[in-house]
Design goal:
The chain has one domain: Na+/H+ antiporter like fold (Up-down Bundle). The chain contains 15 helices and no strands. It has helices at residues 2-13, 15-28, 41-54, 62-66, 68-92, 97-108, 114-121, 126-152, 160-184, 186-193, 196-214, 216-247, 252-263, 267-277, 286-318. The model has no long low-confidence stretch (mean pLDDT 82).
């Protein structure tokens, strides 16, 4: 168990590098990674969400009652800024339909659980970050299918009911099972929670490797274009998130959490929806995979920037 805990700490610290190495390896030697089939992706995402359920506490919802303005504002920003940015970018860059769908799937997804870790590293308000992530995730079965339908229905057929059921299965059901495990077996869940970062990292890396290996040849054709769009989507999300937080006079610790929450998405959900509901558009999963790689890199850099900024602010207040 000690080895697993140590491994979990190591993997969490160097996740961005691990993902990059795994993705490049899958791109260069796709046949070696073809054993990880797309059918496994919903299960892998469910494993990540189960981990979220095990670590969920009632205190995670306290921010909603203590500081409802910041939490509600974060949820509204999450489900407006990123979808609108996605819609704008796919038209500005005139993306092919499959790739455009993939970008919109990212924009319509809730906050990613990685945002909580990045907020912690940024010395931001972790309680606010967790509250926004939890609430957007719980609302995702309703809001995400609606946003996808709203932004793509003129181009493709969207089955909102099937998508709603799918998100229930891969998001809410695993979270509920994880929460029940914590409720009735607290000691076991406490030990299990210590290795969850390792399991989540393995699951996320496996999802990325699966998609990259399956579409390695296509990445040569569209890699540069979609990378540009994904980077802009992510960075503009950070920028608008921070701007909104400052416009509503949130302090720096909350503004950094807000910024990170808006810019980082649950790319695993976007990938799962692409594979499960848009099989006719196989390239739709590629933007989510690239986003997953990129936002771990940008998030780490942003955390470093904010942590120094917060430290500088704290030092100036002492003097």
């Amino acid at each position: 168990m000690k080895f697993l805990r140590t491994s979990a700490v190591f993997v969490t610290k160097y996740l961005a590098f691990i993902i990059i190495i795994a993705a490049v390896s899958a791109w260069l030697w796709p046949k070696s990674f073809s054993v990880i089939r797309a059918d496994f992706i919903p299960f892998l995402l469910g494993l990540v969400m189960f981990g979220m359920g095990v670590s969920l506490r009632m205190s995670d919802f306290k921010e909603l009652f203590l500081r409802p303005k910041a939490v509600i504002l974060g949820v509204l920003a999450q489900f407006s800024v990123m979808p609108l940015l996605a819609f704008g970018l796919v038209h500005i860059f005139s993306l092919p339909l499959e790739l455009a769908l993939g970008v919109i799937l990212i924009g319509a997804s809730p906050s990613g659980t990685a945002s909580n870790v990045i907020t912690y590293l940024a010395k931001g308000d972790v309680s606010l970050s967790v509250s926004i992530t939890t609430l957007t995730t719980l609302l995702a079965p309703i809001i995400t299918p609606f946003l996808i339908f709203l932004l793509t229905s003129q181009s493709i057929q969207v089955d909102m009911l099937a998508m709603f059921i799918s998100i229930l299965e891969v998001i809410l059901l695993p979270i509920a099972l994880g929460a029940l495990l914590h409720r009735f077996f607290p000691r076991f869940s406490h030990d299990f929670a210590s290795i969850l970062p390792l399991l989540s990292a393995i699951a996320i890396t496996a999802i990325i490797v699966s998609i990259v290996a399956a579409h390695a040849s296509k990445l040569f054709d569209f890699g540069a274009l979609i990378l540009c769009v994904v980077i802009l989507h992510n960075l503009l999300g950070y920028a608008f998130g921070y701007l909104i937080a400052r416009l509503f006079a949130l302090p720096l610790s909350q503004a950094s959490a807000f910024c990170i929450e808006v810019g980082m998405q649950n790319s695993g959900l976007a990938t799962t929806l692409a594979v499960s509901h848009f099989a006719l558009y196989p390239l739709a999963a590629i933007p989510a995979v690239i986003f997953s790689i990129w936002h771990n890199i940008s998030g780490s850099l942003l955390a470093n920037y904010f942590s120094h900024k917060v430290q500088k602010t704290q030092n100036s207040q002492k003097t």
